[in-house]
Amino acid sequence: MIQEVGVIGAGTMGFGIAFQFITNGTKVILQDINEQSLNLVEDKLNQYLKIYKEEGFTFKETDKQILNLLTLTTHIEDLSNCDLVIESATESLQLKQQIFKQLDELCNEHTILTSNTSSLKLSDIVKDVDKHRERVMLTHFFNPAHIVPLVELLRAPDTSDEVFKTVKEFMETMKKVTIEVRKEVPGLVANRIQVALAREALSLLEDGVVSEEDLEDAIFAGPGFRFSSSGLLKIMDFGGLDVWAIVLEQLQSKIESEVRAFPSLRNKVSVGNLGVKSSKGYFEYPGKGLDEYVIERDRSLIQQLKTFEKLKGGLTNA
After folding, report:
1. Is residue 82 classed exposed, middle or buried when 0-12, 13-18 and 19+ CB atoms within 10 A define those classes?
2. CB contact set of 109 (below 8 Å; sequence gap of 6+)
3. What is the pLDDT confidence band of residue 318, given thresholds at 50, 70 and 90?
């Protein structure tokens, strides 16, 4: 049974994971070597607790009780007694290997060790783990981790069935939707789908088929609108698999399948137009800083989460 969780890394993902757990009644020790990152956590927690309430969410505990579930530390040794430790450090294979080797030596035998990576191979990350070989996994959250429901689960070569079941059930009690990734492939599942969509969208843009504004509307008001209520396979079922078979036969040879550079993307990066964080990317973001735009986005996603939970509850109770 998982009662206390350690989270390594107090950045965007680590904060979101910690927020998700403490607002669902689980103790968390959030560790980061950077004291400045830890110093920002409490204000950010209070800000999001306020936003969630303003958007109509309620929590079982008071704000004070929720905050009391969180411990901040710069010492990785403080995670040694946790039931589950989730590594969410910088995407450096060497760093992650070092962290897992250290955790393997420090943590109690019952501790489950997981990584939040999607770009690095879990089997490479845990290659030096010995004591916990049957108790390592991948738990990949999506940004923002405290709002987007999905968590992808992947076993390491020696992960026990009991450990996998324990982590899956725990995530679901934390109000997450879990999927099992059955093979270790780069990008796992959801990011591969997202990159495939980006490749086709950017090719349409580069080839002059559509403007940036209309491309955004096509995705947001078309497939994206339908995706807000179901996954792709149900969309295919409703459209008719016979129809989809014909569409795929006609279009698969026509859509983008090459690996190529996209000048519109590379040119923007080369001149420093990096998106919201630089106030300009494919679109302009004037007059406000990154944090303000992130809050606006997150408010919208929290509203969407309310709709998602209602829909999921209705399907579950049907």
Report:
1. buried
2. 131, 132
3. very low
Q: How far is residue 243's CA from residue 227's CA, in Å, rounded to a whole number?
A: 19
**What's the confidence (pLDDT) of residue 315?**
47
Torsion angles phi and psi, residue 114, rounded to 5: -135, 160
Catalytic site residue from 75, 110, 132, 140 = 140
Residue 316: band (very low, low, confident or very high) from pLDDT cuts 50, 70, 90: very low
Domain range annotation of the chain: 4-180
Exposure of 41 in the CB half-sphere (CA atoms within 13 A):
29
Q: 4-180, what's its fold?
A: Rossmann fold (3.40.50)
CA 194, chain centre distance (Å)? 13
Question: What's the rounded Cα separation, in Å, for the pair 177 and 179?
Answer: 7
Task: Say whether 140 is catalytic.
Answer: yes
Mean pLDDT of 28-40: 95
